[in-house]
Amino acid sequence: xxxxxxxxxxxxxxxxxxxxxxxxxxxxxxxxxxxxxxxxxxxxxxxxxxxxxxxxxxxxxxxxxxxxxxxxxxxxxxxxxxxxxxxxxxxxxxxxxxxxxxxxxxxxxxxxxxxxxxxxxxxxxxxxxxxxxxxxxxxxxxxxxxxxxxxxxxxxxxxxxxxxxxxxxxxxxxxxxxxxxxxxxxxxxxxxxxxxxxx
Length: 199
What we know:
The protein has helices at residues 36-45, 47-51, 64-80, 128-142, 158-167; strands at 3-5, 20-22, 26-29, 84-90, 96-106, 112-119, 148-153, 170-181, 184-194. It is α+β, with helices and mostly antiparallel strands. The radius of gyration is 16 Å and the shape is globular. The relative contact order is 0.15.
């Protein structure tokens, strides 16, 4: 069960300018540059944990200036309707638990997007990513009007495969050399979840 609030002052009938989602244990929020320090700490603290599953990062990625700029850009992407990039906080909003991003939003006859996510090593195996992704997907279906959410994972990432299956995603294909991860082209399993409510 999750609830969505607007940017603390304004409410939109279609999409809040800065949506905030509250779940039992988490807060999902499209952040401002004021949260750059917390987001940077998440990536610095989890560098080794995440490096196996993400693209190679430059030294600039681990700077406060990068995250101030990136969080500003994320808000512009939200306003443009091309992406919704949630930072996942603990209930006290003192630590970043992970990220839950909906990228490549396409309208027209497609009405679809891609889901990407990451979780801190200390929070693995406790259902936090399931809780966050479920709430985020509900927002994309109900508030953003998505028909399809797609998510792809490396075969070696068994945790990700189990998570997506638990969320109801179905396997739709297999793509060779799909993304360059940690400096190597990696195969990915292609999955998707269809909105159960016709839009």
